[in-house]
Task: structure prediction
Amino acid sequence: MRADSAVPSSYAATLASLKQHVRNARFTAQRRANTELVVLYGQIGATILLRQGQEGWGTKVIARLAEDLRTEFPEMRGFSPRNLAYMRAFAAAWSQQETVQQAVAQLPWGHITVLLDRLDDQTMRNWYAEPAVQHGWSRNVLEHHIRTGAHQRLEAAPTNFAAVLPAGESDLAQQLTKDPYVLDFLALDGDAKERHLEQALVNRIIDTLRELGEGFAFVGRQVHFDVDGDDFYVDLLFFHVEQLRYVVIELKTGKFKPEYLGQLGFYVALVDDRLRRAQHADTGGLLLVADKSDAVVRYSLAGQQAPIGVASYDLLPPDVRAALPSEGDLANALRAADIPNAASPGE
Result:
């Protein structure tokens, strides 16, 4: 060690080595969790296949199964009727006894649905699964290669993928960390704190309604909508019985970000289109955040067409504002739900 430095000369190399060990370990854990999820989905699909063959289960029974599974496991977003259909197709395509040993078990579920949608030939599905895992293809890259017939172009083509795409840093590795199904399965996703908050509020729903104010009725938590085959979930949905207005509440435990309003506006429009009746007032939205800059909120709200508020700071018409709980009401609701270390909005 040099006298003029407190850091050993070998420190940088040691740190780099340890970082790589951490990345590799995380990637290994993610792949194992992903394989467990793929096996689970295969088991569910195989069960559906069996029941359809033995008892003639139809679409209504599958829809009921999807709803019951979502009710039991609200933190998992993979139990839509459409995804159950994918599970059935997956079980029909790949033998469950062989799945773990095949490349497909190492792919995110979104990649598998691409293989099922884009390819009818099982040999071709297996062919594309192999390089997708080996070279770390993202879902978009996989779709591109299928569309352009990569099995005819790349089968014998030399590549440098293995050299330039380290296992823990490839596109596939990144998608494994972000795949909502894997993360929901582990209950370790980025929304874990929000989900905990939702559950606590629902567990104390009577107190929550009392704190939100007069006229609120609870509609549901993680309310599911299917939009052209994609699944979307509203955190909390209420109905104001005096104003005849749906109120969408989205929860964020971090600091306000402008993009949160885009998501909330989308949900407000969705509820307005799917649930609102002619006699109902416009659907309102409220974003609850742990911290915010009023200036950032002001600029963000300026471009919004939907009636949306961010805690007590809003630019809403008086009638819409009257239907929404105040920032103090929301803070009291959080305290009534016994949320440990829950920061009041604006703190």
Q: What stands out?
A: The chain has 17 helices and six strands. The beta strands are 216-227, 230-240, 245-255, 284-291, 308-310, 313-314.
